[in-house]
Amino acid sequence: MHNCKSPRIAITALWGLYILKSKCQRQDINLPPRLTSLDGNPFPGCTDVRIKIDSDAFIHLNSALYSFDKKVQSSFFGNKDCSSIVFDGVEHIDRYCFSRSNVEIVAIPNHICSIKDYAFYGCNNLKEVSLNGIMEISNHIFDSCKALIRVSIPSSVKIIKEGAFADCCSIKHIAFPNSVETIEDAVFYGCSAISSIELPDSIHDISHGDSETGVFAFCKNLSVVTLNSFLPSLREFDFKCCENLSRIIVPKGDKLKYKTRVGKYYSLIVEKNERGDDLPF
Q1: Residues 63, 57: contact at Cβ < 8 Å?
Q2: How far apart are CA 217 and CA 246, in angstroms?
């Protein structure tokens, strides 16, 4: 005898990509009773959404969608700043949660444990972000935030993952706390306004994974990179299309270590002496 009971439903963020491509023409959305999980924001870029919730798994409050226990925020439908968002009790911000929204200023409280991949992807009006408490900055979290100019990274962060600030073409400076140990590929890809970057000595290496996009690739105004520790995985492609790069400053004694690693950019490497001054070529 067949079981004709409808299965419980989990909608993934792939649905969000479909709605995004259709320019979010769907404004009236019904969440059915058997819906248990969204697995990310399925409505990125939708700022005028009317939701009817028949599922007991979600709460719609202050222009946002939460899990019923309010520990996970899945979607945001509001405009401009996040002052109306109720972060009390929220521990996790889901994939694509604020993606394509009109947020301008975001302050993440320190009781939030994690912010998942692409959470702020394509927020073209986002200018300022203050992060607190998190241990990692996720994959492509601020990718294509064209107006972003200021990011505050807390001392709790240990890893900055792939493409975290890719194509943030307005940001001019990022300060890294000494807690950061690893940066992944394409972190600064296309950050065309940055002229100098200094990585702290706490960073032990660059993780490229399966990608060879380049950590600093297409940073067209990047002139000076200062490394305060030896990064054995640094490669020539990490500086692809850095047309104005003039110096890569490394600790005294490290220059020769890069001879077979960075190709044509080896000639730009200079060492610091013990006082921190650049040594001549």
Answers
A1: no
A2: 15
